[in-house]
DNA sequence: GACCTGCTGCGGTGTG
C-alpha cells in the first residue's frame, strides 16, 4: 500500500486490512497527506459511497491515537444535517473505533438522555451531532463549551452543500465561529460533499478569512456512463378513450421499472400520492406483488423506514415514488434508474438525484425524464404554446451535461437567523454588550454584510416594549426580556427554520402521517394517502387528529408549498433552446414534436426579434429572459403602477387596468431610474421563523437581499424600451 | 410554482 497508508495509526491500518481493501482510494490518500502535512482546512468532494467519511476519519482517528489529548473533551466533532445520517455514520465509525477504545457518541433528539449524560461527564472521542443539538449545548450549557471542546482537533461537516447558504447553514457557520471564540483558537474544518457548483465559493463559505488555505480534494473522473431519455406526454382535451397523460406516464414507468430498484422523483407530495396510487393499481390489476411505494416527509417514520429498508437490503424489487426526501442522506444502495416527472427547480437537485444511480462498477446512470404538457387548442395561452416545462427540462439536462449547477447566493442578509443568534449568544453568556454581539456575529461570524447601523436597528426592534425579546441594563449589558426568556427556554427555539402546523392522520390507532392544517377536510371525504385510499371519519381540532378507515376510492390531498426559484443561467439556456433548431438525440418523437411546436410559436408570437409583445388591447407579454429573482422584481415594480401581472419562467403577462399608464411609458420611467416602491402591493413579508420580531423596514431590506434584485431593474427595463 | 431538515429538562411512574 501507499505511503499515505503508512502514516496511519496501527489499529486503523489493521482495520483497513481486515476489510480486505487492497489499496486506499485516491481521495483518501490525498486527504491523509493533507491532514498530516498541513494545518489546512479541506473540502472532500466525491459521490455518495465514494469513501469521503473514511478519507476524513482515517487520519483524524490516527492522530488522536498517536497523540492523545491531555485532559478531557471531545477529540473530533462531526456535524450532520439528518438524524438518520448521524446514526448511520456512528455505526460505521464504531466499526473502526471498536478496538481502540475511542468512544463514538451520536447526539440528537432521539438519543437517550443517559447516553448524553455519560458523554457530558466524560467527554472523549468523536461526537456526532446536528446543528440544532449543538445550538442547544450553547444555549443550555454555554459555560461548559470550553471544557467540552477545548481539545477538539477538527470539525467534519457532512453534506456541506446542503448548508452553504440556507438559514440553517448560516446558523452552523455562526456556531462554528462561536466555538472557536470559546476555546480561543481555530479548529480545522473539513467539509464533505457530493454536489458543489462553485468550488471557490464553497471554500469561502468553509473559511471566510482564509479561503486560499482550504485544500480541495475532488474525486477525478470515474463518473458512470449516462443513459438519458426525455419523453413527452400531452394531457387534457381529446375524447374519453385516450388515456390521460398521468395514466400513460404511470404505464410506462410500470413497464420499464418493474423488477428492479428505482427512484421516481415526482416533484410534489400530491403527485407522489397520485403516481404511487396508479402504480399500485397496475400491480393489483396484473395480480403482481406490490413493489411501488410513496415516500415523502408527511408520511409516518414507520412507513418511510419500511420503504428505505426495502430499497437498501431487501432482495425484493422496490421503486420509491418520492420528493427530495430520498435525494441525499443515508445510503440506500444503488438504484437502476432515476425517473424525473416534470422539470426540477435546480440543476443541483437533478445532479444529486442522478448520483443515486450508476454507482456500481460498469453500470450506467440512467435518467428517464418525463415532460407532461397541455394539449393545445385555438384558445390556449402563450405559456402552454411555449411548452415551458419541456423547455426547462431540456435546458437543465444541457447544463447538467456541461457540469454546471447553481452556486450559493452570498448577498442574503439572513436577518431572521441573526435575531436567533443574538438571542442565543445572550443566553450562552448570560448577557452581552451590543459591541460584543456585533463583533462575534458580524465581524467574526457569518453576518458580515450587516452594518453597525443596521445591527442597531435590529437590536432596537428586539428591545421594543411590544416585542420584549431583549432589554438593556444601566451598564449597557443586553439581557433576555420576558418574551425572550420564554422563547429561548422552549425546545422549539433551536431550529432556525419555520415549520407549518399539521394534523396527524390516524387509522385504527396507527399513525399514517401528517397533513398541513390549512388543508380543509370534513368527515365523509375520501383521501389517497400513503399509497392507499381512506374515508375520513372524525376530525379532532383540538388534538389535531384526523381519524380515517380504509376505503375504495379517494382523491390526493393538497399540501401547499413555496414558490420555486430558477437561476438566470437556466432561463437564459431556455431561450437558447427556443431560438435554436437542434434536435437533442435523447428525446422521443412526441417530445421532439412538442419542441418543434414551441419553437414555431415562439417565432410566431414575435419573441425572436422583440421582448415586448402586445396580445390585444390590454394584454402584453414581456420576455424578461432572466431568472426568478429579477423577473419577480420587475413584476413587483409593475404591480406598483397598478398593472396585474402573472409570472412564468422568463416571462411576464401584464394586464393594464382602467387607470394604469401606458406600459411603454412606465418601462421608460423605470429605465430612466425612477425609484419604485416594490412593496406597494406587498405580499407576505413574514417568510422566516424570526421575522415577526422585525420592523417592516428591516423585513423589506431582508426580502430585497435574498429574493429580489432591484439594482438591475433600470437596465432590464431599458432593454425592452430600446426595442420599440 | 416545491421540497427538506430539527428539538430540552423535568416530573411522574415502573422495574430490578
UniProtKB/TrEMBL annotation:
Ranges for domain Helicase ATP-binding come to: 33-214
Keyword Hydrolase part of the UniProt annotation:
yes
Q: Which InterPro entries match?
A: ATP-dep_Helicase, DEAD/DEAH_box_helicase_dom, Helicase_ATP-bd, Helicase_C-like, P-loop_NTPase
ATP-binding found in the keyword field: yes
Q: Which UniProt keywords apply?
A: ATP-binding, Helicase, Hydrolase, Nucleotide-binding
Q: Which Gene3D superfamilies match?
A: P-loop containing nucleotide triphosphate hydrolases (3.40.50.300)
For molecular function, the Gene Ontology terms on record are: ATP binding; ATP hydrolysis activity; DNA binding; helicase activity
SUPFAM superfamilies for this protein: P-loop containing nucleoside triphosphate hydrolases
Q: Where is the Helicase C-terminal domain?
A: 249-405
The family database entries (PROSITE patterns) matched by this protein are listed as: HELICASE_ATP_BIND_1 (PS51192), HELICASE_CTER (PS51194)
Its name, as the record gives it, is: ATP-dependent helicase Lhr and Lhr-like helicase
State the taxonomy lineage. Answer: Bacteria, Pseudomonadati, Pseudomonadota, Alphaproteobacteria, Rhodobacterales
